[in-house]
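tool_call: predict_structure(chain=1)
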Amino acid sequence: MIELGKKTLIIGERINPTGRQRLATELKAGNLEYVAEEARAQGDAGADIIDVNVGAPGINEAELLPRMALAVQEATGLPVCMDSSDPAALQAALKVAAEGSLVNSVTGDADVMDQLLPAVAEHNALVVAITKNHAGIPMGFEERMDMARRIVSRAASFGIGPERILVDFLTMPVASEPDSVSVTLRCIVAGITEMGVGTVLGASNISFGMPTRNIVNASFLSMCIRSGLSAAIVNPLEPGIVQTILAADMLCGRDPRGRRFLADYRARRREAY
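tool_result:
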């Protein structure tokens, strides 16, 4: 069961065929052992939740996503984040996933909310509410907050409380939107204090178009965690990214005496020798 509000949850993002030709090929062939290997590697690297995305041309998501969710659960013992824009696929995966799994994502579109939120409620799942709709991503603070409020309000009508919602306020590349970081950080704070929701982000978009993206991403993640971020969607195999999250948690008081940080350090030391 996913628990919000304590440590920053690490959601492993690697099971996504976008830009990964081998994974797309294996998925089309129905080879889930490769998926299981990817899931185990992320769990071993520090992931708390494994994101599962099967969106690629020629793949029947409604048939494959439930199978992948089961394969990942069995391989790792970790909760899954079922990631799809296909409501039928998400509904099918919810039927087989462990109770308390995560659905990614529900947008601010009325049709998407009405298709997915009843299934989320029925299966006692958690949900990512993403602040965009068919018209795109709103740029300003108030516009994103308004969209988040609409999703949270609609979720409440199905009995889904804020403690089961992670809002992804999104972020635009700082290279093209200089105010991107300040808007996102304001939204994270306001979402927590005003609505009582959790928050989640994929950090890597912030650095698009910039050099040394890993440094930009790590710096941004630390700022988000300081603002109260509940979960981060990252590649846990990227050098330094898990350590950055654990160190930020320690410095923000989410990891008393640095127990989690030190346990990770000792484990990495053992692996090195």
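agent: The CA atoms of residues 230 and 243 lie 16 Å apart. Proceeding to next step.
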